Structure formats: C-alpha cells, structure tokens
Amino acid sequence: MHRRFLLDSLKEETMSLPxxxxxxxxxxxVAFFADQAPPAPELFPAAAPVWEGLRxxxxxxxxxxxxxxxxxxxxADGPLPHTxxxxxxxxxxxxxxxxxxxxPGEECEIIYGSADKGGLQVRRGGELLAGASxxxxxxxxxxxxxDLGRGVLVESGAFLKExxxxxxxxxxxxxxxxxxxxxxxxxxxVGHVTEVKHSIFCDDAKAGHFAYLGDxxxxxxxxxxxxxxxxxxxxxxxxxxxxxxxxxxxxGLKKFGAILGAGCQTGCNAVTNPGTLLGRGSVVMPNTTxxxxxxxxxxxxx
Length: 302
Fold this sequence. Notes:
Strand order of the largest sheet: 3-2-7-10-13-16-19-22-27-30-33
Number of strands: 33
Strand content: 25-35%
Number of helices: 3
Shape: elongated
Distance between the termini: 67 Å
Oligomer: single chain
Structural class: mainly beta
C-alpha cells in the first residue's frame, strides 16, 4: 500500500507540473535563416531555439560516416609533403557513386581561381576533372575524419583537425585553423589566420581575414570584416543566459559565441560578447562591441 501511495503521489505531482515553455518564434532557426536551409537541417528542430544546432553538433559529427580517401594521404599526422587532388567523377542521380581518386598534384595542371566562385580548375592529361578538390602541399592534417565537398581548395599552412565537414566550392585559406567539430556549408571562406572551433557556417558565409569564431553559427550570406572576434567564454562561470524581449532564457551552454542571421555583416575589428544573437540583416560597425543578447533584424550596432 505504501509503495502504491508513493507511485500515485508521484504521478499526480508529475501531471501537475507546468508545461515546458515554448521557444519564442524570434529565437527559432527560421527567424535567423528564413527559407535558406542550414548545412544540417536535422540540427535545428522547428520547436527548438536556434542554438540547439550547437548543442547537437558534436554528436552529429561523431556519428557521421567519413569517406575512406583520407587514409590515402598517409598514416602520419602533420603537413602534407605534396599537393594532393581529390577527385570523384560526377554520377547521375541513382547511379552507383564512382570511387574517389587521390592524385598527386604534380600530375595535374591546377588553376587556383577563387574556389567559392567556382574558379578552381584541375586538368589531368588535358582532361578537365570537374569538381576536383585540392589540398596544397603544407596543409596540416590531424586525424582522418574529414569530408570535403566538390571544388574545395585548402591552401598551404591551413591546419585541419578532425572532425571536419566542408561543403562544395569552399576556400580554406593559408593559416586558417579549424580546431575540430566544424561544419562548413557551400561556397564559404575560412580566411587567412582565421580560427574556427565547434561552429557552423551556413551557405555563402565568409570569415575572410583574422577572425575568431568559437561555438558560433554564421547564417547564410554572412560576411565578417577583418579582425572580427566572436567571443565564446564569459568571465563569470556558468550557463550563458540569453536576454530577449520576453526576459531571459537558459541556453544550456557554458561556451556560446554568437549567432548571426542571414545577411549580417560586421566591420573590421568588431567584437561580439558571448551569447549574442543578431537578427537577419544586422550590422556591427567597425571597432564596435555588440552587447550580449538578442538584437532584432536589421539592427545597426555602432
């Protein structure tokens, strides 16, 4: 009887708990990305806040199956001694995928145009290898859990740590440091001496020069001015709380940089405080620090 009483009491108590608050619409992924899908839509449930993508990123990349071509680069971590071309012939929908070939760069003629604009071209024996990707000599590889899309250029001196997923026609420039758990969309740029850690780039996002992105999301078409820093760690310990017009909401994250909605821009040497959310089309002017919390679309911070 005592056991049954406890179970009935627990059931009544559970039934009387208030329902979990719904995510405000202004904090949803749709509000930040509009109708432009992020590189892994499953990370962004419709009823969840946009930063849920960061909470699920590690698990997604841990569970992913990675192509076997990376093992053809050699067993040792460190800088590549020679330029390597990664080529997989395009197949029609429904056809069995063709095997990926790793070709020494010296066997190819390479035109190093802007990869994000489709300018990278590779020929072998006069034949155009459409969609070939290039890892230049001196690229530093740590691990083998990498997935590079078609037409990707990784320049000498870039440092790639696993796991890493890069979409089609991206450019990873000299001195870029991708510290692991990075998901990069299509036609993106990770620029010279730009450091990226546990972050997501949506399609056409660009961090071209001297940037830092920690635990952050760049929406479609975002452009960061040179020297932009998306700070991810507060001096005060504990979970980052997000301020928005309805009050505060817990993020569940101790490290949380910034989320920039579609079309946002930052000027040179702009800084965002941990837990900054910029609505679509917002601008942070040069040499400006954006306050933490939610900023409505088309806000100009000066």
